[in-house]
């Protein structure tokens, strides 16, 4: 490390429970790898945090680019922070001049999770008979006609409707805990879809009986993990991105120790695909890359047309960008 070793290093993060859990995980890694450095968190409120009532899914409605990242990037450029920790799915593919993606964490469970109320629990609760519940291990195909599923993701909405065109898909905003509370207490909602990685980072778990358990979770919720053939994830899902200033050798050295090369290659292909499709994090496209031997395999889908369009491909690991571009070309 340089002679600036005694200069504090600030990790910028949003203030939500999930963002703090993610940033603290990175902070723990940093302190473990560099125990002599002074490394602290800096909480910054983003535009996305301030626009809790704005729609993320309405067609033709323009929202600021980098909804959950812009203010963190300003802090980096101003020298008020040194590393910004993002859910990589929220980080635009085009970064501001002077900033780069310094590292990518090892990916957590990349799948989505269907969450819904437990019929057996509701039967035991006086006064909750107006809320519809279901049996464990519920699949999307098992919903009654016209069931209401809440999600603010255009990608999730498109895939839900591709399987069940009769579903009523509505908007929902708020952090993970808020969404779970809304599902538990609003009778008009039947289910919601969340990222498995986010639940895991908040120390929530799905029990063998299919119950969603953890501190702060409303009672009586069940969960089903959705396979990729049912719900393909968004670009960068379940990975954390560490954004830093370009040509900052001291911080890059830290990131080199934190980076997970296999995940980095996978998300590089996915982000290349998203860039090639000309979309942002709210675009109705999905992609998932994984390493098989010395090959990078990726499946991708676009839901911009009336019917879904899908593509698969593979290249060597060092051709991640080309793989993403190739699949984008197939689907555009």
UniProtKB/TrEMBL annotation:
GO terms for molecular function: hydroxymethylbilane synthase activity. Binds 1 dipyrromethane group covalently. The porphobilinogen subunits are added to the dipyrromethane group. It catalyses: 4 porphobilinogen + H2O = hydroxymethylbilane + 4 NH4(+). This is Porphobilinogen deaminase. Keywords: Porphyrin biosynthesis, Transferase. Belongs to the HMBS family. Residues 265-332 form the Porphobilinogen deaminase C-terminal domain. Residues 9-252 form the Porphobilinogen deaminase N-terminal domain. Pathway: Porphyrin-containing compound metabolism; protoporphyrin-IX biosynthesis; coproporphyrinogen-III from 5-aminolevulinate: step 2/4. It is an enzyme of class 2 (transferase). Monomer. It comes from Pedosphaera parvula (strain Ellin514). It comes from the Bacteria. One of its GO terms (biological process) is protoporphyrinogen IX biosynthetic process. The gene is hemC. The lineage of its organism: Bacteria, Pseudomonadati, Verrucomicrobiota, Pedosphaerae, Pedosphaerales. Signal peptide: none annotated. It holds the Pfam family Porphobil_deamC. Its cofactor is dipyrromethane. Its EC number is 2.5.1.61. Tetrapolymerization of the monopyrrole PBG into the hydroxymethylbilane pre-uroporphyrinogen in several discrete steps. The modification S-(dipyrrolylmethanemethyl)cysteine is found at residue 281.
